[in-house]
Amino acid sequence: QVQLVESGGGLVQAGDSLRLSCAASGGTFSIVAMGWFRQAPGKEREFVAGIIWSAGSTYYADSLKGRFTISRDNTKNTVYLQMNSLKSADTAVYYCATVGRGGSAYIVSDYNYWGQGTQVTVSS
Known about the structure:
It is a single chain. This protein has about 120 residues and is mostly beta strands. The chain is about 0% helix and about 55% strand. The protein has strands at about 1-5, 10-15, 20-25, 30-40, 45-50, 60, 70-75, 80-85, 90-100, 110-115, 120-124. A hairpin with a 6-residue loop joins β4 (about 30-40) and β5 (about 45-50). The radius of gyration is 14 Å and the shape is globular.
């Protein structure tokens, strides 16, 4: 079983940058991909960005390309989300999640382990 702990959230102003971290522990050998999702108040959870663990290939929600960057440090079993030029619309709880063996990084329902989330609030 994989445990995920997010950190790095906080209150920032519009235009600022923030970097989130997600540290994985437990069955990390089974991780195929890791992704970031977010959920704003009253809205459904949405995909933000993902990374294939072995190859480092990345993919993003179209609306966030260019502002958000996902990366990973295999030695630390940690994935990062660099968020630049933040907007009030980016305010949400951000979650990281993993896909295990046999799953697809491109199918949301295949993300089977989730962190507790970290709050990001962007004031305008």
